[in-house]
Amino acid sequence: MLTRAAPSPCRYVFPGIGLGASLSGATRISDRMIEEASLALADSLTADEKADDLLYPRIERIREISAAIAVRVIETAQQQGLDSNEALRNLPEGELAARVAKHQYKPESDACAVAAASSNGEAKSLL
Question: Angle CA(90)–CA(93)–CA(98) in degrees, nearest 5?
């Protein structure tokens, strides 16, 4: 029995699709890329999350999950010949995931947030 609302799968899937498509230089987003993003989300559930009957991973893991989705999208774009970023092809195991993580948005480096924090004491708590 589900006792609390689960986060929307869009929170996980769309950032991963966007990042994967952008990094791969995908010429388009295929149905297969969307399907693989969904499968990556399903595959990301841990044993504990499954035991708790969660539909989606815990929101605290969203960056990790979105990165895994981006990797799957990139791999699918490569398999389908839809990628244009040759630098991401044929990387050693784990290197693609490391590059994806390196390019994920980091709010603490957001120039707008930093500017707001320097002029407004309340904004500092957001960083």
Answer: 95
Torsion sign over Cα 65, 70, 75, 80: positive
Q: Residue 85 carries which side chain, given as an amino acid letter?
A: N
Asked, for residue 3, whether it belongs to a domain, the answer is no
Domain assignment present for 51: yes
Length of the chain: 127
pTM score, whole prediction: 0.79
How many domains does one find in the chain?
A: 1
Residue 60 lies in a domain: yes
**Tokens in use for 59?**
């929101």
Per-run averaged pLDDT (10 residues), the chain, 127 residues? 65 94 97 97 95 91 95 97 96 93 81 54 42
Proportion of the chain in helix, strand, coil states, percent, rounded to 5: 65, 0, 35
